[in-house]
Amino acid sequence: MTTRGTSLIPTAQRGRPVVPTRARWQPLGLDQVRITDGFWADLQDRNARTMIDHCERWIERMGWAGNFDAAVQGRLPGDRQGREFSDSEVYKLLEAMSWEVGRTGDPALETRLLALTARVAAAQEPDGYLNTMFGRPGQGARWSDLEWGHELYCAGHLIQAGVARARSVDDRASDPLVRVALRLADHVCGVFGADGDQRVCGHPEIEVALVELFRVTGDRRYLDQARLFVDRRGHGVLADIGLGRSYFQDDEPVRESTVLRGHAVRALYLASGAADLAVEDDDADLLAAVIGQVRTTLARRTYLTGGMGAHHEGESFGQDWELPPDRSYSETCAGIASVMTNHRLLLQTADPRHADAVERTLFNVLAASPSAEGTAFFYTNPLQQRVPGEVPDPTVPSPRASSSLRAPWFHVSCCPTNVTRTVAALASYLATADDHGVQLHQYAPATIRTGDLDLTVTTGYPVDGRIEITAVTAPDEWTLTLRIPSWATGAVLTGADGAELAVAPGYPAVPGPRAGQTVVLDLPVHPRWTVADPRMDAVRGQAAVEAGPLVYALESTDLGADVAAARATGDAPRRDADGRVVIRARVDSIPSHDWPYGVAEVSEPGELRDVTLVPYHAWGNRGPSTMRVWLPREGVQEA
Amino acid sequence: MTTRGTSLIPTAQRGRPVVPTRARWQPLGLDQVRITDGFWADLQDRNARTMIDHCERWIERMGWAGNFDAAVQGRLPGDRQGREFSDSEVYKLLEAMSWEVGRTGDPALETRLLALTARVAAAQEPDGYLNTMFGRPGQGARWSDLEWGHELYCAGHLIQAGVARARSVDDRASDPLVRVALRLADHVCGVFGADGDQRVCGHPEIEVALVELFRVTGDRRYLDQARLFVDRRGHGVLADIGLGRSYFQDDEPVRESTVLRGHAVRALYLASGAADLAVEDDDADLLAAVIGQVRTTLARRTYLTGGMGAHHEGESFGQDWELPPDRSYSETCAGIASVMTNHRLLLQTADPRHADAVERTLFNVLAASPSAEGTAFFYTNPLQQRVPGEVPDPTVPSPRASSSLRAPWFHVSCCPTNVTRTVAALASYLATADDHGVQLHQYAPATIRTGDLDLTVTTGYPVDGRIEITAVTAPDEWTLTLRIPSWATGAVLTGADGAELAVAPGYPAVPGPRAGQTVVLDLPVHPRWTVADPRMDAVRGQAAVEAGPLVYALESTDLGADVAAARATGDAPRRDADGRVVIRARVDSIPSHDWPYGVAEVSEPGELRDVTLVPYHAWGNRGPSTMRVWLPREGVQEA
After folding, report:
1. Which terminus of chain B has a lower count of CB atoms within 10 Å, N or C?
2. What are the pLDDT digits (tens) for B557-592?
């Protein structure tokens, strides 16, 4: 027994998903930032009321939690259910429950969390190893398939669950989930240490988990192990596969890469882990490498929604500028992983483009995944839907990317649990603190308390651009830093004294309001046309509507016709009296021919009319439809 | 021993890949049509000199021919090399050798063919079963994996090789390759007959092979078996797979389908077999279904090159209008399969759009695959290459779609042998005959002899549009039917009497020239701009240059810069003094930003200049390059 619970150090990390020991901006905990109303509070409510329960029920129904019972009862491998990574879904659910219990203190959820933890803990081997897929008679040997077996990936998710739990309970040392995670982490360090097995996992995840466990425990052994995994990768340490070693980032060392490539979730989890490691090691070269990769990826390989991953094949990044809206993979998990990575880089660099990426991805990828009811999820997030598709059977799991419509569950069901753990911890993205004051990154109705400071944020954002920050209590002097998004040309900040200040995109800092005073930020959230870099061939001649951080979409449900033949005018988009976004458009009559190529394809222009768009995150909630974000538009300059 | 060689009927099928017993237009044999010069003769020479040898060497080197020796020597499964379908590569090579021996009578090749046949024949089991992957101790049982095992697929290719051989030798009854094919076909009929195993193969191919074997032998048992396979498919007879049953067309019966879908090669091989079956059964409903599927596919799911298959994932068709040039899969084998299918429909329907599809696909997919040297091949045929890529090692097989450049061989190496068998039999696509005369479908320097008719075709086509058809000997009255391609607006036919006749696209028929007389067809092959249906979003705002049946491409090799920023003017493309196709274009300077979306992306226009294009089939022969067929062009109407 090697449980190291006694080494847990009592740092103030409560309720924070990421707690660098030395970042420029320190995150605030879920007990310090509370989302009180509005868009994100609604999603957190849906998570609490429905989504976590939904995941728990499906994990039971699929037998993925039962695999742990089967392990204890000696019924493996015969009774094993699910794919090789199904353990990780149980762990991600445990992480979601941990953050949620930390956020709300819900005693019923705490009971369920403990019960599920007990089943997992019972399956842990005496030496700390834990995986229901390997190591028993009739199963593959432990660590016998690092390319595809996901053993270290699953371990990483268990450790992340343990980290979440450690940051959500008072008595970390004796918490059973924390103890299971520590025992497994110790086992991993024993097997894969400097003199041990020199390989890495086909799916990065253990790296980010181990650095976070170091942050919880202060035990450098975990940090050292993360460094070994990061440094080993990229030297062909894994076997080659049909998709190529770039699929799992074993083609090129992290320090030498210039852009994210291969499987998007793998690439982004690795980037998160490498960023955390670079911060803790004060490794400027590694940090610069990750920053370069992420910024090039944002500049050339990211969808308007913030989504990442352009290929279905290999669920991978495409080439620069290769971002087809119809075949966009933009996996929900890749969006979440991008939020993880950009949040880490924001804390360290204070560069607003990372907060912009977090906001864009939260509103247009994360929020798009769950249905309005919270009982179905998008796995992929295409920017164009060519055929309406069929509503998936709510009682049957879907293949991962089979339908245009949200499905209740998937055979590879990484996304729903990933959504729940992220939504439960959403408040951590709103604000940070440093010695001078507080920084606001994301805008939502919220309360923020840190030290002597007690702030209330009141806003109807993102539909309304007015954001009021009121100090309930405050020290005499402090600095309020506010993110002005890159699209917010013409933002105005009104100080406590009533003076108006034009603020440009970035992070302007102003004297913080005193107790009872209010600062008001006005962001221009009127609808606007957006066009793409001319090298992005797939959307040439097209434009999209955005309003504030929201990307909008045209759905056949609103058009009353297939969106394929819709063509917008150059008129500016506007809001109607009900706040909906409206454009002027035609539905052309396009002739069909035996052969679709010729000297000229002349459409017959349809009549001009007003057409309502929906926020992209809300599409697909009214039955099968065709949809497009990018619309052919008159007056979009060519090339 | 159930060899049915004695039932071979002596029909006049020599040298014809497809011989319907009742088609409207009857194909002519390779001994009747000979390509004498020009583009296709050059390719046939390359095939004879290099490509067939190249395939034979690689098949030996990979151990795929050796698998048959290993079977005889009891060294399977231990010594087996290659994937589950590697036997089929040996068979496709045998088919290529058969047509080539039939075409040229090359005695050295005949010797090699017989030697390879003997090795295959030695591995055939006493009951006729033949496959090196299944049925031995340590291997899967026969027919135990119809979804992925490719046993019937391999059998189909062996039967097609036997058919080719039967149509290329005088003594079919005793030919060893024909006998092996018959024994295997009989075995298949025994196992999968009306009262036998009710399943089908995960990869269609056996269907088309069995109908052709019926045509060779007159034995209806083969036709009946083909009908069983065609009718069984589409009812979920195979297990469901991650890609869905549409992948192998088991989602919907052939008779009820309206468009080709799923894996493109599978879909097209099935369509070929169903078309053959419909013709032999005089089954108007089945024929109508296949025609409808193919015509809708041509109208909505086919690349400008004739290529088919828009998804790398599943190597499959996309949705209607979903035809990305950069991620076009357009597998060489799918192009060949489209030629097979359209040729069959042409014979039966006399509809010129099928001959147009054959021509377009031969020039822009089949001809694009082999390198100028004939020692490397494209597997996929993208219409846009974003990164130059690296030249594959000529000594190492590539993954199937890994590189932008032609590779010497692939781990899944279906395309090279498919090219060789098709090129060897190319002459069969040029002309057909009926009771009234001869129909010319494809234009190349050639001699055509049938009955009393002896024609010589002289032309520099496709670069020169003048085609002279001279009768060496001819009956007093006969009808010459000529295909005018759909792009040929303004074609002129000059009769033997010197009278000029304007001919529209289609199949005009004129009195055939008498002995010594010449008819001249002038097709307008000047370069032209082509635009796409507005629903084809991926090429919106872009145009491509075609000249005659050739699609042209812009390569960085000629531009002296990455093609990404090239923008053509509206000026008409032209030929320069050397016959090369030239356009006017700029290379814009496109600014890069942290985020590639905004209110306007303004490029700085480059200077106007003349830029040379290359025929698409010739691209990639001068080292790594970027390439695009579709060019942003000024004046392309929006939407």
Report:
1. N
2. 999 999 998 999 999 999 999 999 999 999 999 998
CB-CB neighbors (< 8 A) of B298 in chain A? 594-595
DSSP state of B287: H
Is B601–A532 a contact, with Cβ atoms under 8 angstroms apart?
Answer: yes
Written as six digits, the tokens of B212 are: 């052709």
B312, B321, B538 member nearest A313 (Cβ): B312
**SS3 assignment, position A269:** helix
d(CA A616, nearest CA chain B) in Å: 16
Q: What is the nearest CA distance from A108 to chain B, expressed in angstroms?
A: 38
What is the Cα–Cα distance from B53 to A149, expressed in whole angstroms? 42
Q: Do B596 and A300 touch (CB under 8 A)?
A: yes
Residue A537 is nearest to which of B304, B320, B538, comparing CB atoms? Answer: B538
Using a CB-CB distance cutoff of 8 angstroms, which residues of chain B are in contact with residue A329?
none
Q: Which residues of A306-324 are buried (b: 16+ CB within 10 A; e: fewer)?
A: bbbbbbbbbbbbbbbbbbb
Q: Phi and psi for B196 in degrees, rounded to 5?
A: -100, -150
- The chain-wide mean pLDDT, for chain B, equals 94
Give whole-number Cα distances, A451 to A23, A432, A435, A509, in Å: 18, 12, 10, 19
Interface residue B396 vs chain A (CB under 8 A)? no
Q: What is the pLDDT of residues A41-66, one digit of tens each?
A: 999 999 999 999 999 999 999 999 99
What is the Cα–Cα distance from A377 to A383, expressed in whole angstroms?
A: 16
Per-residue pLDDT tens over the stretch B13-60: 777 778 888 888 999 988 899 999 999 999 999 999 999 999 999 999
The domains located in chain B, with CATH, are 5-429 (1.50.10.20), 431-522 (2.60.40), 528-632 (no CATH)
DSSP state of A462: T
Secondary structure letter of residue A50 according to DSSP? I
- Report how far residue B335's alpha carbon sits from residue B361's, in angstroms, rounded to the nearest whole number: 6
DSSP state string for B564-606: GGEEE-SSPPEE-TTS-EEEEEEE-B----SSSEES---PBP-
> Is residue B564 within 8 angstroms of chain A, CB to CB?
yes
Facing residue for B534 by CB, picked from A356, A599, A603:
A603
Selected residue of B243, B589, B638 to mutate for chain A interface (largest A Cβ count, 10 A): B638
Q: Is B387 on the interface with A (CB under 8 A)?
A: yes
**Contact (CB<8Å) A542/B537:** yes
The pTM of the full predicted model, rounded to 2 decimals, is 0.95
Q: Within the 494-533 window of chain A, which residues sit less than 8 Å (CB to CB) from chain B?
A: 528-533
* Tokens encoding B71: 């079977």
Instruction: Return all residues near B470 (Cβ < 8 A) that are at least 6 apart.
Output: B455, B456, B457, B458, B513, B516, B517, B518, B519
Backbone phi and psi for residue A408, each to the nearest 5 degrees, phi listed first: -70, -30
Chain B residues in contact with A303 (beta carbon < 8 A): none
Q: Does the beta-carbon distance from A532 to B318 stay under 8 Å?
A: no
Which residues in chain A show pLDDT less than 50? Answer: 1-11, 638-639
Residues linked to residue B432 through DSSP beta bridges, in sequence order: B27, B439
Q: Which residues of A touch B387 (CB under 8 A)?
A: 319
Among A23, A148, A113, A89, residue whose Cα is nearest residue A428: A23
Tell me: the pLDDT tens digits for B298-338?
A: 999 999 999 999 999 999 999 999 999 999 999 999 999 99
The per-residue pLDDT for B8 is 38
The angle at the Cα of A266, spanning A264 to A271, to the nearest 5 degrees, equals: 95
B326 touches chain A (CB under 8 A): yes
Say whether A532 and B311 touch across the interface (CB within 8 A): no
Quote the crossing angle between the two packed helices B176-192 and B220-232, to the nearest 10°.
50
Helices then strands, counting H and E runs in chain B, come out as: 15, 24
